[in-house]
């Protein structure tokens, strides 16, 4: 059984439905990329998994989220609290706002160990230093006593990762963990996350808008568009043979090495606002191959590949179509 | 007409900040004796990480910031030597598209006001009908529905606003446009649209671009020449996008840029050291603390940008 | 326009509705005083002096038998007129000084703000007393004293707005297309800085009414027989035991008007969502 199974998850904020029957699953030791542009519902999915929807006035309207056999949709808040941090950890986009400016970063990692692993102050400190070394933080003992403002963005994000690891979680949800960082630092952080998954058998849900990061780091990928699943499957198969026109277009938005000038065109139009979602397939107004049924019928997921890739498209691209 | 439209000649720019009320001034060198030619009709890309001075460079190019040392010459004229009135006239020929489309349009202006502002500034008068036609023409050039002219910027998406910024830059028919990370705050699908638009406008209007970006992949796709910057200095100038890089920092940048191809994953080597502070510049090569090839010479002696047999590179141990 | 929408929202809010009604009444009284007042404000009737409120004189009469209601209605014209005119002038001058200081920076800024800080460090009443000592008592002196007393506040507020707005990309964009200083200030900076300054000005009108009343109370503002609310209270002091209404009603009118101004201003601040922009005041 998968560590995390999300099935037909629908989320609404107030009366506004934002996420519509999204499904994916994640195994231990696996990195799943959740990809989409802004407004696709990626961050909302992360909040739903963390049980944080009430903070933004949202709720799960239907579907099932099962984590290691626990049904998260029915979990009381008190039990959720023991789950968060200890078994599921969140790394957010902006390390600057995840850290308390008036505490040393060491104290913040220590605190995470003490709360989640019940360690003594001394043991917590030893563990923090150990975690910091694993994350290749140079001079860990010195950095332990620093305040967040004394550290660079990349170093702060490593501290946030150390805090996430302090509870020894089974699942890490990383919501755009490198967006605010420089490319060289991004590469380092992504490498660290991938190494952690391999060494510790963690499951990592990597939320990103960058197909380059997905290609580099993920085993499987799930593409979202306007609150719905578009395509999901193994990274190699999806990149080699995208079946959903949106997946193909999204990959095509990133310049390849040696790409001919003028061949980068982007996707016409823009992601619709939640109040103006079109009927049928939500991608059809931007889709080059939209047919009449795309305008009226919502596509259901169908397995399009021996690898198990699923595309939510009435007219999935043929293998030779690429 | 010379082939060089814009020339930086030993340009430096310092910023100072007061350290407390009684403390002395701290001076930071954002751009450090940069010499660079921007060839006419080409796209010159400037790539680097945050704090490398690329945005300062963009502002120096248009004399929005005055250089602390050196000269910035546009069409052979030193911009610092112009009277304020002459500088304002010169600005017709050099325009800028800004990184943040969300704050680059006055929220009290309609889109038409924003696009027509350059004419107002330069005293070009239009009747109401002329203004309407002209604004519509520039909006269409930027790929926007002319009906958006009546709207306010808050009613537009980020991509649309960036197109308005481009329409405004085009209004005075400039020769040079400085693009300061024009797609950094946009979604990838919109980024590709904007790049396609810029490429099309360049060929149609014969423009010269100075394209500032942190995204090496994008720069390699869009630009004819690439200037790699590190801590305020140009460390390598690649004459073409397929020229093999010679500076170790350029290699690090290349290795850090992930391709959308799972068959070609990068091996990311752990890098020690941090970017030095621009307040306390090391005496030698700024990249040395992070460089695997650094020798004692690199820590002692600052490499200068020398035109080698192939292309300019500032490194004591360039790669082959 | 956003301002009109906000004004409408402020008028509709629970705090704003009653205060807007009171302000409308006060302004109407000031404008239409000759038609609304039942008697001429200076008409004496010594036989009917210090009469209690009655059907003929709704708020009674003063020691010269003048109708108090008429004097309060005319007093609205004087008190509100001076406060609004003086504050408007103060806002306009403060706006220009603050904008220039904030935009140019450097020594211009330092000199202007040093002067502003010095005047700010004294209470307005003290500045007013010094100015009146120089200019002599009278309504115009009181007006000038109010204008100068509040100048620093508006100059400082404008300056802080301008400094914040200067960093907006659209200002840089305007400079990059070749705009001169006047264009940048007049088209981009001042219009965007205006709203909080005007709201602060509105709130200051309340303070100015009290300042004018204080000066009037000490006989330094409007000179008899011209009625201002403060002067009316002043003349009531002597009769406080015999005819308490002569001091009571003008005092009440001042209090209610000032509270209404503050409540309405507060509602407007919320409707415009500019509370944080006013903290530099």
UniProtKB/TrEMBL annotation, chain A:
Its main location: membrane. Keywords: ATP-binding, Cell membrane, Membrane, Nucleotide-binding, Transport. One of its GO terms (biological process) is transmembrane transport. GO terms for molecular function: ATP binding; ATP hydrolysis activity. Pfam families: ABC_tran, oligo_HPY. Residues 4-251 form the ABC transporter domain. The keyword Cell membrane applies. One of its GO terms (cellular component) is plasma membrane. Belongs to the ABC transporter superfamily. This is ABC transporter ATP-binding protein. It comes from Azospirillum cavernae.
UniProtKB/TrEMBL annotation, chain B:
It is found in: Cell inner membrane. It is a peripheral membrane protein. GO terms for molecular function: ATP binding; ATP hydrolysis activity. The keyword Transferase does not apply. Residues 6-256 form the ABC transporter domain. Pfam families: ABC_tran, oligo_HPY. GO terms for biological process: peptide transport; transmembrane transport. Keywords: ATP-binding, Nucleotide-binding, Transport. The keyword Nucleotide-binding applies. SMART domains: AAA (SM00382). One of its GO terms (cellular component) is plasma membrane. Belongs to the ABC transporter superfamily. NCBIfam families: oligo_HPY (TIGR01727). This is ATP-binding cassette domain-containing protein. It comes from Azospirillum cavernae.
Automatic annotation (TrEMBL), chain C:
GO terms for biological process: transmembrane transport. Keywords: Cell membrane, Membrane, Transmembrane, Transmembrane helix, Transport. SUPFAM superfamilies: MetI-like (SSF161098). GO terms for cellular component: plasma membrane. It holds the Pfam family BPD_transp_1. It is found in: Cell membrane. The keyword Cell membrane applies. It comes from the Bacteria. Residues 76-265 form the ABC transmembrane type-1 domain. Gene3D superfamilies: MetI-like (1.10.3720.10). It is a multi-pass membrane protein. Its main location: membrane. The chain crosses the membrane at residues 22-42, 80-105, 125-152, 197-222, 242-269. Belongs to the binding-protein-dependent transport system permease family. This is ABC transporter permease.
């Amino acid at each position: 059984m998968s560590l995390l199974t999300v099935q037909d998850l629908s989320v609404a904020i107030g009366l506004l439905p934002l996420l519509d029957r999204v499904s994916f699953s994640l195994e231990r030791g696996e990195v799943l990329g959740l990809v989409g542009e802004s407004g696709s519902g990626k961050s909302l999915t992360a909040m739903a998994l963390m049980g944080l929807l009430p903070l933004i006035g949202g709720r799960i309207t239907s579907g099932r989220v099962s984590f290691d056999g626990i049904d998260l949709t029915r979990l009381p808040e008190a039990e959720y609290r023991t789950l968060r941090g200890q078994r599921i950890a969140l790394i957010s986009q902006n390390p600057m706002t995840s850290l308390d400016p008036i505490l040393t970063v060491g104290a913040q990692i220590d605190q995470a160990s003490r709360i989640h692993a019940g360690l003594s102050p001394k043991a917590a400190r030893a563990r923090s230093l150990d975690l910091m070394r694993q994350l290749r933080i140079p001079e860990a003992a010195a950095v332990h006593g620093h305040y967040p403002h004394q550290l660079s963005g990349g170093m702060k994000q490593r501290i946030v990762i150390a805090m996430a690891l302090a509870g020894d979680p089974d699942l890490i949800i990383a919501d755009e963990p490198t967006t605010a960082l420089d490319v060289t630092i991004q590469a380092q952080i992504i490498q660290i996350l991938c190494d952690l998954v391999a060494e510790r058998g963690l499951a990592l849900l990597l939320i990103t808008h960058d197909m380059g990061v997905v290609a580099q780091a993920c085993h499987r990928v799930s593409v979202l568009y306007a609150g719905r699943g578009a395509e999901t499957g193994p990274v190699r198969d999806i990149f080699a043979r995208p079946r959903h026109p949106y997946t193909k277009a999204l990959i095509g938005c990133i310049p390849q090495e040696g790409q001919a000038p003028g061949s980068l065109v982007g996707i016409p139009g823009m992601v619709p606002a939640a109040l103006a979602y079109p009927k049928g397939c939500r991608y059809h107004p931007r889709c080059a191959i939209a047919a009449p049924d795309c305008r009226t019928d919502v596509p259901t997921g169908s397995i399009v590949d021996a690898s198990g890739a699923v595309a939510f498209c009435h007219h999935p691209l043929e293998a030779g179509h690429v | 007409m010379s082939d060089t439209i814009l020339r930086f000649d030993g340009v430096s720019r310092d910023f100072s900040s007061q350290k407390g009320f009684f403390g002395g001034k701290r001076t930071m060198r954002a751009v450090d004796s940069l010499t660079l030619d921007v060839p006419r009709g080409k796209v010159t890309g400037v790539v680097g990480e945050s704090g490398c001075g690329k945005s300062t460079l963009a502002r120096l190019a248009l004399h929005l910031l005055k250089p602390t040392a050196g000269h910035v010459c546009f069409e052979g004229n030193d911009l610092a030597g112009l009277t304020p009135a002459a500088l304002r006239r010169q600005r017709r020929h050099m325009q800028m598209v800004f990184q943040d489309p969300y704050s680059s349009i006055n929220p009290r202006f309609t889109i038409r006001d924003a696009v027509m502002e350059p004419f107002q500034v330069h005293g070009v008068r239009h009747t109401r009908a002329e203004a309407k036609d002209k604004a519509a023409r520039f909006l269409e050039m930027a790929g926007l529905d002319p009906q958006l002219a009546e709207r306010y910027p808050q009613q537009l998406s980020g991509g649309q606003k960036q197109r308005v910024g481009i329409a405004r830059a085009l209004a005075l028919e400039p020769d040079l446009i400085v693009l300061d990370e024009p797609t950094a705050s946009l979604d990838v699908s919109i980024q590709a649209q904007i790049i396609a638009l810029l490429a099309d406008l360049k060929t149609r209007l014969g423009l010269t671009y100075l394209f500032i970006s942190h995204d090496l992949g994008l720069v390699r796709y869009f630009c004819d020449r690439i200037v790699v910057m590190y801590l305020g200095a140009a460390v390598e100038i690649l004459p073409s996008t397929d020229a093999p890089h010679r500076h170790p920092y350029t290699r690090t940048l290349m290795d850090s840029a992930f391709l959308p191809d799972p068959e070609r994953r990068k091996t990311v080597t752990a890098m020690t050291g941090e970017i030095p502070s621009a307040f306390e510049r090391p005496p030698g090569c700024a990249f040395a603390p992070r460089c695997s090839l650094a020798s004692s010479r690199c820590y002692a002696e600052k490499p200068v940008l020398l035109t080698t047999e192939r292309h300019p590179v500032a490194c004591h141990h360039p790669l082959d | 326009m956003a301002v009109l929408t906000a004004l409408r929202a402020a008028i509709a809010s629970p705090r704003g509705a009653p205060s807007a009604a009171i302000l409308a009444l006060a302004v109407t009284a000031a404008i239409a005083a000759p038609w609304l007042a039942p008697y001429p404000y200076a008409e004496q009737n010594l036989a009917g002096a210090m009469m209690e409120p009655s059907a003929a004189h709704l708020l009674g009469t003063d020691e010269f038998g003048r109708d108090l209601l008429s004097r309060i209605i005319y007093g609205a014209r004087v008190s509100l007129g001076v406060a609004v005119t003086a504050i408007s002038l103060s806002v306009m001058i403060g706006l220009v000084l603050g904008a220039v200081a904030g935009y140019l920076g450097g020594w211009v800024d330092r000199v202007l703000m040093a002067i502003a800080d010095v005047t700010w460090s004294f209470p307005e009443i003290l500045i007013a007393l010094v100015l009146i000592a120089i200019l002599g008592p009278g309504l115009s002196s009181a007006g000038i004293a109010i204008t100068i007393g509040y100048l620093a506040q508006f100059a400082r507020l404008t300056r802080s707005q301008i400094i914040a707005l200067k960093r907006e990309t659209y200002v840089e964009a305007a400079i990059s297309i070749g705009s001169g200083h006047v264009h940048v200030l007049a088209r981009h900076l001042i219009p965007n800085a205006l709203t909080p300054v005007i709201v602060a000005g509105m709130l200051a009108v309340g303070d100015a009414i009290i300042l004018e009343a204080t000066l009037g109370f000490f006989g330094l503002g409007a000179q008899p027989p011209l009625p201002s609310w403060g002067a009316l209270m002043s003349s009531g002091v002597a009769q406080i035991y015999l005819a308490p209404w002569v001091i009571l009603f003008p005092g009440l009118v001042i209090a209610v008007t000032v509270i209404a101004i503050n409540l309405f201003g507060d509602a407007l601040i919320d409707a415009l969502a500019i509370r944080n922009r006013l903290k530099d005041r």
